[in-house]
């Protein structure tokens, strides 16, 4: 339900933004598409670091996977990581291994995990 409401709100904001003069739209529209640390669900890297050990078995320490089957999370875009985890959790993306791992987390937890892995250096 939250996803539907968020999508409706974003659609309304985009429609309003597109009706603005070009100069105002150029300043306003990027704020609509920012979903990382400045989003309503503030990403907390420390919280992500606290939760990350659950991810290590597949994705490796710091998201540096050494197993080809599992993607490296280190240095990925925060927004991509968050959207992917939300999609697994909310059933929009199907993966029998990943879905159960993220089902226990709230949006804030997933935002923290995304921020943490995005900040990690790939080795």
Average the pLDDT over all residues and give the rounded result.
80
Largest pleated sheet: none
Q: What is the beta-strand fraction?
A: under 5%
What is the overall shape?
globular
Computed over alpha carbons, the radius of gyration is 16 Å
Secondary structure tally: strands:
0
The tally of helices reads 7
For the terminal residues, how far apart are their CA atoms?
Answer: 39 Å
Structural class of the secondary structure composition? mainly alpha
Provide the low-confidence segments as ranges: 28-42
Order of helices and strands: HHHHHHH
Helix content: 55-70%
Characterize the structure shown.
Helices cover 57% and strands 0% of the residues. It contains 7 helices and no strands. Helix 1 runs antiparallel to helix 2 and helix 3 crosses helix 7. About 12% of the residues have low confidence.
């Amino acid at each position: 339900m939250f996803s539907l409401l968020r999508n409706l709100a974003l659609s309304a904001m985009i429609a309003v933004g597109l009706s603005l003069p070009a100069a105002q739209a150029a300043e306003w529209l990027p704020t609509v598409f920012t979903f990382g640390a400045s989003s309503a669900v503030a990403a907390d890297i420390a919280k992500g670091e606290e939760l990350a050990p659950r991810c290590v078995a597949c994705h490796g320490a710091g998201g540096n996977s050494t197993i080809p089957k599992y993607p490296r999370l280190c240095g990925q875009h925060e927004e991509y990581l968050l959207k992917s985890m939300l999609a697994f959790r909310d059933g929009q993306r199907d993966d029998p291994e990943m879905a159960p791992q993220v089902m226990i987390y709230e949006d804030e937890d997933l935002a923290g995990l995304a921020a943490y892995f995005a900040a990690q250096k790939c080795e």
